[in-house]
Amino acid sequence: MFFDSFSSFIEMGGHGLYVWACYGLAAIIVAVNFISPVLTRKKVIKDIQRQNRREQN
Amino acid sequence: MWTSLKRLYHKMGSPKWFYEISTRWSPWFLLVGSALMLTGVVWGLAFAPADYLQGNSFRIIYIHVPASLLSQSAYIMMAAAGLVGLVWKMKMSFVVAKVIAPIGASLAIMSLLTGAIWGKPTWGTWWVWDARLTSMLILLFLYFGVIAIYNAIENEEMANKAAGILAIVGSINIPIIKYSVEWWNTLHQPATITMTKKPTMAPEMFIPLLLTIIGFYCWFAVWVFARTRNELLWRERRTKWVKNLVINAPTNSGAHQ
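Predict the joint structure of the above. Result:
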């Protein structure tokens, strides 16, 4: 461990705000990339199921 | 040799084949990518020594460099997929090109934002209109252009062609980004990693960077696979294999397909 305490890890020698802002933003963008196709998939499957049901009736 | 290459080409053009193989590979890419990212980020944030000039702000490198590299690689892949689609009329190829655009755009945004935040404590400014930063912004706009074409043009064939041509023409920007730090005076530091020279960084700083770069590429594969499968399901909705798959699919979770 480079830092000697948890608070110095958070502070990052005065650069904490910049570093954590970057990692936070990156986490949001990564999360969107993971979640968005899962939601799309659900929607696509529902749409196809609805269409198939309509055709059967 | 030739026949097996030809067979592979036809397989790659088969939506069902791509759907199945990418479904099988995705968990592995996810697993390996996540393990590499976790190791790289924890190492980079907590264990790597601080930079003697930049202090701890240099730790931003572990996301800024992978995001920048990948946003450019993704662009090259998108342009190459567009070219294959245009030349050999391979539909699968256009699908991949289409789904890369929003992912690449998100990575370009990540690169620009983390770069701006890194610039503030390092250069004293969020943004300068220098060659590296401007060419990265152009990369983002090229991605937006491709996305806009797909949203604006209803006719699928036309949209594929227009987006493919834009992607190919825009790839001229990639060498400009790469050499911008050499051709022009710029605030941006020169490349951290080069293929030809030994890394100038200390290994305990460099190895975690390598891990996050490879980790990002693995995650990128997962994202491209997932989006491509969604496109394929919809395009192939009339086929038997999709109908069978959709009947068996639980609507609340599609995780174990």
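DSSP finds two helices and no strands in chain A.
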